[in-house]
Amino acid sequence: MTSLIEVENIGKTYGSVIALSEVSTVVNAGEVTCVLGDNGAGKSTLIKILAGVHQHDQGSFKVEGNEIRFSSPREALDHGIATVYQDLAVVPLMSVWRNFFLGSEPTTRFGFLDRRKGREITKKALSDMGIDLRDVEQPVGTLSGGERQCVAIARAVYFGAKVLILDEPTAALGVKQAGVVLKYVAQARDRGLGVVLITHNPHHAYPVGNRFLLLKRGRALGSYEKSEIGLEELTRQMAGGAELEALAHELRGVEA
Amino acid sequence: MTVTAKAPPAADERLSKPRLLDQLVVRPEIGALLGALLVFLFFSVVTEQFLSLGGAATWLDDASMLGIMAVAVALLMIGGEFDLSAGVMTASTALVTALLATQLGLNVWLSLLVSLAFALSVGALNGWLVMRTGLPSFIVTLGSFLALQGLNLGVTRLVTGSVQVSGMRETAGYESAGFLFASTFQIGGTSFYVSIIWWVLFTVIASTILVRTKFGNWIFAIGGAAQSSRAVGVPVVRSKILLFMTTAFAAWLVGSINILRYASVQANQGIGLEFQYIIAAVIGGCLLTGGFGSAVGAAIGALIFGMARQGIVYAGWNSDWFQLFLGVMLLAAVLVNNMLRRRAERVKR
């Protein structure tokens, strides 16, 4: 089976800044690939390449076995790669269904918006994902942060995404809300989508992830299958491993 | 767009009848409609002529010239941009038409066509510059506003030796073009200008596009969150440039109505009008930050303008009072809009 996405030794520079260098990973159908790293580790650069916002300078980027270079997010979408950004998931003042269909609006024979169809499909697609909204005409801004992410995820699933890229979907959320979002991530995975989950929280990544790519300062710190690594080790590596131990030692010194 | 009265069969049982205020949130033009009603009643009671057919013809005409522009500007504002060159554009287009027809002897229809092409290119240039530079459209179109103002005066003085172009009446095609843009029609023995029909037509088309089409959906989206829209595949740059061109088109329409009605045009015409368009759009429920508003609302905003401006004349008051009225209206509208937006954006946790 060919992977949905396969990147090999991919790299990207902005002028003289090396944002990403020699990073490799795969995304398979029905699996979650987690990308972990601190701020500035190159997570955003990686997903922006996958999503078609930026283009890579080095290495190879294959979608379903074919070498590819996207020129726009639209092109990535046409290849079934949908991205849900942390802050950019939705347009707050627009209604839920208008957001849901944004960019792929249903039209009647005469070219007008098919509003009834839009509302019905939105309600159905959301309830399929387990989100029960009272009114799809309400502005998305009135939903909670978790619900907004879910609307964006449901949208990607409905429009036939094969790969779902989630940029820090749990970052701004409370514990309960984050749990809800992770549930939908698992649901998308079980529907056979390949999911790329970007996060800096190993506790969110570990329960749903199949594969963990750790980034640091634009380079891969390690890449593990779930069977190869436990939550504790993942957390330790995330936090900088040996560095953290040194820091802990120092802090103990302060106390004493 | 709103919660319709006849509920669909699949209505959710948890949905009680929506509260009035919640319904108003999704209807940005409601405030303007109430305002228009108040102004109408006020001047109907206070003055004699206001409610007469002749009176109505006057304030409707005033509102129509402003309204055509206000509607186009509203679309642009919902799309998240401003166009300060919109006012002088109405003069520029009229000048191009007039100069071509009177100085070069071109047929009026041909002159109108060239002037339209000129308007659309200026609109496209405005949009392209804004998108290309990423600068606020406020500053970019302030530049084109000044540039056009200079061109209007400079070129006119260079060609005619004065600051006005006249003599349209003798040009070929003036009659037939005038019929389309500047004729009158009779209702109950009173003449109404055809510009009123243009205004209504333009409003209906703009509003239909805005709420009933894909492109309309995109206008709201690019004004509300351009980056998010781009991420889901909305052609942001193309859409915004189209909106600037729409404003330019409206300016051409108003310019053409002006030149064919008065047969002459002043080179310094139109300056300052750009703010009236923005004010009318804001009174009609447009947010200054984009992403929210209504074309019908902007048309109603223009109606309030027209009624108040003429009503004050009928009442025999000094026209200074109009500015006071305008300021109060604008502040009230902004406050109401702001409240509605906060309500819409309020996050339930």
What does this 3D model show about the protein?
The complex is a heterodimer of chains A (256) and B (349). Chain A has helices at residues 43-51, 73-78, 96-100, 115-128, 145-158, 175-190, 202-208, 231-238, 242-255, and strands at 5-14, 17-27, 32-37, 58-63, 66-67, 81-84, 163-167, 194-199, 211-216, 219-225. Chain A has 256 residues and is α/β, with parallel strands linked by helices. In chain A, the strands form two sheets. Chain A has a six-stranded mixed β-sheet, with helices on both faces. A four-stranded antiparallel β-sheet of chain A has the order 2-1-4-5, with helices on one face. In chain A, helix 5 (145-158) packs parallel to helix 6 (175-190). The termini of chain A are far apart. Chain B has one domain (58-329): ABC transporter involved in vitamin B12 uptake, BtuC (Orthogonal Bundle), CATH 1.10.3470. Chain B is built from 14 helices and four strands. In chain B, helix 4 (86-103) runs parallel beside helix 6 (137-160). Chain A binds chain B through residues 51, 53, 73-74, 77, 83, 85, 88-95, 98, 101-105, 107, 111-113, 115-116, 120, 123, 134-135, 137, 139, 141-145, 155, and chain B through 1-3, 8, 10, 12, 14-15, 25-26, 208, 211-214, 216-218, 220-221, 224-225, 227-235, 291-292, 341, 344-349.
